[in-house]
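Researcher: Here's my situation. A collaborator sent me these components and asked whether they could plausibly form a single complex. I don't have experimental data yet, so a predicted model of the whole assembly would be a useful starting point for our discussion.
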Amino acid sequence: MASERIGHHCAVFGIVGHEAAAYQTYLGLYSLQHRGQESAGIVTADGERTRIHRGMGLVDDVFGPEVLDRLPGRSAIGHTRYSTTGASMQANIQPIRVNVRDGTLAVAHNGNLTNSRPLRARMAAEGAIFQTTTDTETILHLAARSQAELLEDRIVEALAEVRGAYSLLFLSEDKLVAVRDPRGFRPLCLGELDGAHLIASESCAFDILGGRYVREIEPGEMIVFTDGTMTTRRLPPAPQTNPCVFEFVYFSRPDSRIYGEKVDKVRRRLGKRLAAEHPAEADIVISVPDSSNTAALGFAQASGLRFEISLIRNHYVGRTFIQPGQSRRDFDVRVKFNAVEGVIKGKRLVVVDDSIVRGTTSRKLVRMLREAGAREIHLRISSPPVANPCYYGVDIPTHAELIANRMSVEEIREYLEVDSLGYLSLEGLLAAAGEVSPVCDACFSGNYPVPLEKLED
Ligand code: SF4
């Protein structure tokens, strides 16, 4: 959510057939930074060998001109990471690269496997040695064990054993393989730049390069690229597809296309439906920036209320320390946001946010708006209550931590100290998602399309 961040997951980017593959990958990752800020990495291939550079921090911290100069090659894959499985440690930074019998193989993964624990336990019992604590490494182990001749056949064999969410990019010395799981949990799209093929989690990564969006990579589709060729094959289909609907609510950038839809359009529809379901007697509509801006605009359009910018977000927040004696109360929120008193004072506000997770930050934000003179606060949430964790690559807290799991909507309203509270209904969310159907909505509905497989007792 805008005011209380759910851990993003990850982003992947790939390019085949470009003289400056590493540099283009750096730019692509730069525009996907919102999906993961803990670490970044790039692997390049020049037909004969692969080269790698990875580090903790933002893309710009990890890559400079000297580093990119040391990554020659016409193909590359890159990754930005927010840890969903595996602690934040150097070894877990992606892409992960390993030696296999005929060279090297690197992988970048967005998603989360639901059977990685039993798979890992089985392989460890058989003698496998793991270098990381990520679920992604299990895929590499499975591919390395395959006796198949072609890389793509080894990957197909490996993927036959894994369950859950994966948008994956593999890179060997002379091939790049892009594959999306048969349910299509996480987005992955195909682009083009001066004859080079591009692959990215979101299409905003193509725009920064001056590239062109071609299409979404379909659930269960695998594309094998060499410098000059592109062939497609299919994994065995799932009973149905389940792209993550939360991408529309919060994760993806509004200037991206995912699942073939423009995020901006869907997000506006969320706001419009929210206005229809939960109208409010108010003077102005404001958003909790940035991820709620578009939904708030939709709400304002549909309700005929004026949209005002009155919460300002500081985009340069790092780890802010607190001086001894300084009050910690609401400090974290004050570091991130400030209210424009002149806009708010004496007004009845509709405040649009995209979701409420624990509720603690929303409460502080409401207090800040009251202190700035808000007369009434009508909080509107452009998604249903988040009541369940995600097993498919998004770091949503446990059941116990989620406020919607412990309290009714009225109890949440009281806790947040707002005059009214309205969540978009699940039907409203699904209707706004439009053509993309069926989707995964498990964190709202509790209907998990793929169960989490635990270790046997
Ligand atoms: Fe997306 Fe929620 Fe499904 Fe996770 S559980 S994939 S966040 S809709």
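Model: Some features of this prediction you could bring to your collaborator: The domain at 10-241 is CATH 3.60.20.10 (Glutamine Phosphoribosylpyrophosphate, subunit 1, domain 1). The pocket of iron/sulfur cluster is lined by residues 185, 244-246, 390, 392, 394, 440-443 (CB under 6 Å).
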